[in-house]
Amino acid sequence: MSAMAPAVLLLFALASGLLALALWLFASARRRKAQQAIESTLQRSLEIRREWQAAAPPGLPGMPAAPTLAARPQGRSEMLRRLKDRLRWKAWGMAPRTLGLLAVAALALALGAALQGGALAGALTLALCLPLGSFGIWLRLSRRRARILGQLPGFLDNLVRLLSIGNSLPAAFQFASANVPQPLGGALQQASAGLNVSPDLGQAMAQLERTWGLAEFGLLAAVFRMSTRYGGRADMVLERVSSYIRDRQSAERELHAMSAEVRMSAWILALLPVVVGAMIMLLNEGYFLRMWHDSAGRQMVFMAAGLQVCGSLLLYRLARLR
Questions:
Q1: Residue 227 to residue 197: CA distance in whole angstroms
Q2: Integer Cα distance of 188 and 173 in angstroms
Q3: Which of 52, 127, 166, 303 gives 20 to 30 Å between its CA and that of 228?
Q4: CA atoms of 111 and 162, how far apart (whole Å)
Q5: For the segment 182-239, what is each residue's pLDDT rounded down to a tens digit?
Q6: CB within 8 Å of 3: residues ≥ 6 apart
Q7: HSE of 19 in the Cβ direction (CA atoms, 13 Å)?
Q8: Which residues, 6+ apart, have CB-to-CB distance to 29 below 8 Å?
Q9: Neighbouring C-beta atoms of residue 285, cutoff 10 Å
């Protein structure tokens, strides 16, 4: 028990640190939201002032120069923002409090495993929770993207109908995005809120492309930029984009059905060694510990783990039909 005390204390310290990190992320998210609201209002006021100065006569006295926004220092908040953008934080649809609770639950599970089976069992449990959590987030993000792609043609059809009866493009976009279900509705509401700051609809859709990582949003951004800059029949282009998205989804569903056997085989081959190893560790712990305490056995375990990771990546590349 005395040998387990440092490991348990270390796990407790790690749990406390992750809990503090979750609380800090929640507070920073709220602070960041308030800061974005202030910056949006300030940016809009500066744009209005620049437009007024550009429209004013050149020799008008008493016209002060328009102030410029100072660049924010590259501190921890900026690094955190870039990390969230790279991880597509806004597309997860999960509050920081939920992520904090999940982290605390994983640490509590690791602590329980450490108290029951030792520090090695706790470390292995924690190491298993990390990839499982990452896989769960990736699966949730993939499903939300698929739902958005399924809802996008209907939204474009509604947008085309509003354009055909004489509405402008920004007004039709705001009307069409009012009653769209989630998750596409939340993304479009973000773009509509961006229109209150800047009337550039293409820029708002480009921001959605960066947030969600969907090329369809980038295509819509290009269509909106061309329509705003050069004019033309945006309703006809959007109707063709809607038909293209439907045809692509139909082809992807057909390919998904044809490749079901390949993907199922890849899942079985990837998970079978992991499941068998976990059952051996749970049912016959002494056998695994005897091999773990031997130097040659430990090298075999590390080699098997490396081969398992390489094999899983190769199976993923074989089953990925994009």
A1: 20
A2: 9
A3: 52
A4: 58
A5: 888 888 888 887 777 667 788 888 888 888 888 888 889 888 888 888 877 888 889 9
A6: none
A7: 11
A8: 96
A9: 15
Sequential DSSP letters for 237-275 = HHHHHHHHHHHHHHHHHHHHHHTHHHHHHHHHHHHHHHH
Distance CA 235, CA 239 (A): 6
Residue 114: closest CA among 3, 16, 21: 3
Query: Would you list the DSSP string of 190-210?
Result: HHHHHHHH---HHHHHHHHHH
Determine contact, residues 177/138, Cβ cutoff 8 Å.
no
Contact 195, 218 (CB under 8 A): no
Contact 110, 126 (CB under 8 A): yes
| CA distances to 85, 133, 137, 147, 242 from 140, in Å | 17, 11, 5, 11, 25
Q: How far apart are CA 276 and CA 256, in angstroms?
A: 29
Q: What is the pTM of this model?
A: 0.62
Angle 241-242-248 (CA atoms, 0-180°, nearest 5)?
A: 85
Termini Cα distance of the chain: 53
> Distances in Å between the alpha carbon of 75 and those of 21, 71, 94, 263, 303?
17, 11, 25, 44, 41
